[in-house]
Amino acid sequence: MCLAVPMTIKRVEGNRALAEAYGVERFVNIVMMPEVSVGDRVIIHAGFVIERLDPESAREMEAAWDEYHRALGDDGTTGRPDGE
Amino acid sequence: MDDDGIKSQAGALRSLRLERELRIMEVCGTHTTEFFRTGVRGLFPEKLSLIDGPGCPVCVTPNDYLDRAIEISHVHGVIVATFGDMVKVPSSYSSLGRERAGGLSLEVVYSPLDALELAAARPENQVVFLSVGFETTAPTEAATVLAAAERGIKNFSILCGNKLTPPAVKALLDSGETAIDGFILPGHVSAITGLDPWRFAAEDYGKPCVVAGFEAGDLILGVVTLLRMIDEGRNAVKNAYRRAVRDDGNVRAREIMYRVFEACEANWRGLGIIPGSGLALREEYFEFDAEKRFPVTPPPAREHAGCRCGELLRGLIAPTDCGLFGKACTPENAVGPCMVSSEGPCSAYYLYGGL
Ligand code: SF4
Questions:
Q1: Global ipTM
Q2: Which residues have CB under 6 Å of ligand 1?
Q3: Residue A68's pLDDT is what?
Q4: What pLDDT was estimated at residue B297?
C-alpha cells in the first residue's frame, strides 16, 4: 500500500499539478510539497506528491557503491561486508 | 543504475561470506514483494534470512475493523469507498467483495480525494472512506478531511484504521519473541517520518537500521549497508534511499497529519493492542468520524481457524510454515489477509515461489 510511483511535473495550478509518467498524465495534489516546479521528478502516493526526487542524491547512491567497492579493495565480487 | 552496475552489486551481495547466521527484518509490505519480484532475495548469501515484519497495512488491520465497515455499509444510503487492496480481505464472516455481490455499495478509489469527490457528486448518499495505511498514507487522508471541512462537505466521513509503524517495531522488540539482527526500514514511510522515530531501535535496543528504496539496486544497497553495520557492531540508523528520503522526512506532511489526527492505542492483527500506534481524529474533526456518525454494533470478531497470519506478522514463522499455505489458502481463495493483499507475505511467497 505504501507503493509510490515516480512522475514528472508538467504544470502547476494552485494546490495541484499535472504530472506525467510513461505518457500517462494525471492531476496530483501538492499540499504536502507546494514548492514543486515544472520538470521536477516527484513520487506520488494516493494522488498526492509526497516527495521530490533529488537528482543529487541519486548520484550519492552511485558514490555509496564506489565507496563500498573501494573498501573491498577489489571489483566487489568477493569479500565480506566489513571489507576485510 | 545501469544493468552492469546492478550485476556487479548483485555479485557483491551473493558472494558475501557471513560468519554467523543473521536474521534481518523488513518492515514494509512493499519491500516484502519487491525483494522477491526483483530477484534480490535469491541473491542472499548463505546464513542470511529475511524475516517479514508487520508492514502490510491491510494484513495488520484486525477483523473487527472490516466487520464494522460492513455493518456501517448496511445503513441506508451509505457508499463505502476504499483502496482496492481491502476489497477481498476476509472479515470475520464475509468480505467487502462478497458483500458487494449481496448489494453493498462499494467504490474502489485510487485516492481519498476521489472518495471526497464522490461525496460531493452524490449529496443524497453518505460516503464512508476506509482510512487505512501507515505514515505514507495517513497525511493524504488527513489532507482529504481538511478539504472536506473547507468545502463544507457534510456527507463524507472516514473510518479510522491508520497505524504508525515505529511503535509496532518497538512492540516486537519488547516481546523478545524473535531474534532480529537489524532492520530494513520502509522507504516511503520514512519519507514522511524521517529517521528520528527509528533511532530507539538502534540506540535503545542495539539494532542497526537502514532505510531502503524499492528498486533492485536500492534493495541490494540497503542489505549490504545493513550487513556492514552489523559486522562492525555499529548501532545507528542509515539512509540508503537519499533521493527520496530526507533525514528529517516531510515536515509539512506530518504537520497536516497531526493537525487532523492524534496518536491513540490501536489493535494490530497478531501484535494486539499497542499504545500510541494508531491515529484517531482530533475533536475538531469528530464530525468526519464514521464510527461516531454510524454507531453500529458489529457481531463479535472471530479469527479464521488455522490461519497463522498473527504469528507471521510477529516474525515467528514463514508463510510456508502455515498448514493451509497453497492448499486451503491461495490468492484466489484466501483464508487470511496475508494471502490477499498484494503486499502480504503469503501472497508474495505463493506468487514468487517461496524461496
Ligand atoms: S497461508 Fe493463508 S491461512 Fe496461512 S497464514 Fe497465510 S493467509 Fe493465513
A1: 0.88
A2: B 307-309, 312, 319, 322, 324-325, 329, 334-336, 338-339, 346
A3: 61
A4: 93
